[in-house]
Amino acid sequence: MKIGIQKSGRLSEGSLALLKDCDVKFSRGKGKLVTPAENFPAQVLFLRDDDIPQYVEDGVADLGIIGENVLLEHTCEVDLIKRLGFSRCRMSLAIPRAEAYDGVKFFDQKRIATSYPVILQRFLDENQITGEIHSISGSVEIAPGIGLADAVMDIVSTGSTLLSNGLKEVETVLKSEAVLISNRSLEGEKLQILDQLMFRIESVLKARGFKYVLLNAPNEHVDAIINLLPGMKSPTVLPLAEKGWSSIHSVLDESKFWQIIDQLKSLGAEGILIVPIEKMVL
Ligand code: PRT
Ligand code: ZN
Fold first, then answer.
1. Which domain holds residue 112?
2. Domain containing residue 148: CATH number
3. Which of 61, 150, 176, 255 is the most exposed place for a label (fewest CB within 10 A)?
4. Under a CB-based contact definition with an 8 Å cutoff, are residues 127 and 103 in contact?
């Protein structure tokens, strides 16, 4: 199974971390473009992200990890098989800060610079706008400042690039994150390997949003605390050596922790430990 990932850039760290968490181990020699995994029947190919969809369509790679934006721009014959939750960003239309904005009709007859003409054209068509697309390959954000365009459509993450170029974000065209794509004609052994890999990816991604919680609580408040920490099936409750106290172990949606911490404390919870979970099989 050949898995294409970005050689270096904003997808590399997340792609490497995902493979590592799935226990697909490999050593990456300097400048090497292909490396075999040591403990999984796969090879990792290090590529430019824009080349990955075509390579996957052609079968040079069987699987690939790319930004959803790149997949939509290239319209290749590949399958999106999983959204991976990292390298999140949005593609937005932005205009000079001083301009008044009164809705998408603003872009009618306007010159819009972008590196993503396919995605932009689709957005303009959907909104029945006839904008003039200027396709440029880099530094899109400087186009209005040098008089090359009236607006831009570009990838935005924090928004600081737009801000420092005197632009304001006015429309979100799409939201993107890293995705796993697959060649459409995998068969036989490769499908089995894909099943194994998907099982690992699912367990890793499920675990990422959750933490393991351990805490001590007075027995009279155990029921109330269990209501706050429902766990996967139900929490484990163990007696402490000290009479009248129990230890509660559970799994918690990480984003909820700060919402319930005050309630846990007011119910007498002590010694609260929050531990990362590596994998989760339900
Ligand atoms: O060399 P190669 O062709 O492989 O890489 P690349 O330079 O084309 O891509 P790279 O590494 O920059 O981005 C890869 C993917 O990461 C993109 O296709 C997106 O799916 C995703 N991603 C996530 C981003 C960003 N966040 C991002 N912030 N891609 C680009 N940016 C750029 C954006 O173009 C703009 O210049 O960052 C700037 C905006 O960032 P903020 O934080 O100032 O808003
Ligand atoms: Zn690229």
1. 89-175
2. 3.40.190.10
3. 255
4. no
What pLDDT sits at residue 232?
A: 81
Return the CATH number at 272: 3.30.70.120
Pair 139, 96 in one domain: yes
Together in a domain, 203 and 246? no
> What's the domain count of the chain?
3
CA of 116 to the centre of ligand 1 (A): 12
For the entire predicted model, the pTM comes to 0.91
Q: What are phi and psi of 57, to 5 degrees?
A: -60, -45
Query: What digits encode the pLDDT tens for the residues 105-126?
Result: 999 999 999 999 999 999 999 9
Does residue 255 surpass a pLDDT of 90?
no
Residue 42 sits in the same domain as residue 169? no
Q: How far apart are CA 157 and CA 121, in angstroms?
A: 22
Which ligand lies nearest the alpha carbon of 13? 1
Ligand 1 geometric centre to CA of 268 (Å): 47
Q: Are residues 39 and 147 in the same domain?
A: no
Residues near ligand 1 with C-beta < 6 Å?
6, 9-11, 48-50, 67, 69-70, 87, 89, 154-161, 176
Residue nearest to atom 16 of ligand 1 (CA): 10
**Does residue 99 fall inside a structural domain?**
yes
Confidence of residue 166 (pLDDT cuts 50, 70, 90): very high
87 CA distance to ligand 1 centroid (A)? 8
Query: 26-76 pLDDT, tens per residue?
Result: 998 788 899 999 999 999 999 999 999 999 999 999 999 999 999 999 989
Inform me whether the pLDDT recorded for 233 exceeds 90.
no
- From the CA of 155, which ligand is nearest? 1
Instruction: List Cα–Cα distances, 271 to 67, 234, 262, 264, in angstroms.
Output: 41, 20, 14, 11
